[in-house]
Amino acid sequence: MNKLIKERVIMKRLRFSIPFLVFTLFLVFTPACAACEKPPAVEEQEEEKGQEVVPSETTGTTPEIIQEETPPIVEEEIIEEVNAPEIPGLKFDQETKNYLAEAGNPYGLEAGTEAGVYIKNAFEFEGESKDSIGLKAVIVEFIQKKLYKETKDYYFPIPFDLKETGVININELALDSGLDKGRKTLVCNPPVGTVFYAPFPGEWLLFWTKDRVLATSPIKMEGVDKFAGSNIYFKEGEMLLKSIKQDKSVNDKTGEETLVEIFEVKFGEPLGKITGENTLDTFNNRTNYWHFNKPGEYRFCFWPVGRDKSIDGINRLIKINETCFVSFFNKTAHEQNQ
Length: 338
Known about the structure:
The protein is of the alpha+beta class and 338 residues long. The protein has one domain (90-330). The protein is built from four helices and 20 strands.
């Protein structure tokens, strides 16, 4: 009986102790679990493109925003290609528009040497744009001799470096009276300071008349019975070569004496320079000697002469194709101007 009473007392005490124990454990472990829980995630704002967020060293301040510079867009350079004709012994660079000597070229140039330049819209002939290839004198002379062997007649380069002159307008005049009626010549107005080069080698004579006349001595060509050469007229200019001697020329009709200077000239040498803007009397029909069909005010005349009268004027010039004419290339002058 006593034993039964004791068991009931114990069960009664446990009935009150177990809830108390559970409550006590709940109070003990709840803060600890709360400490183990992760804090709620903070939604990050998406950074704007091109901006960098730099956190501040001081807690609670607004982060500084630095705007990054957008790099400039570099456009690729487009190379405008030209239809440059092939020249034996030379290769063409489309980027620089220069001709370079190849190994074993027939001109005696070292491989890689700048030998010429392609000049688009180099000059105008009677208002029509023409291209030119400026070549070193040794190449032009080679071409001139080759043409002579093929045609038994002489052809000539434009006596300028057209890179130096800029675009000039070349016109063709024809004699409309006298025994030489129909013969043509080329006239232009190159800028003051323009150098003109020898389009023919040998002895040149400078006649100190009112219009300066610079003429090649008549040279009989091998295999032909006519003379060829070229005359150059200018009003104001200076010679860049020293004369080897002086002489006098006497007019048969008037008896007037004219000073003549004689020069020994290599092909492509600088002959002279235009020093003023005054124009020639001869080609404006202000003289009684010649009369031209289209007179005008010109300060320079280039009159290439050959055996066949029908190819005077522009047809007497050396050209690589129908629109590309040969002129001189003076690399040293280009370097001095840079």
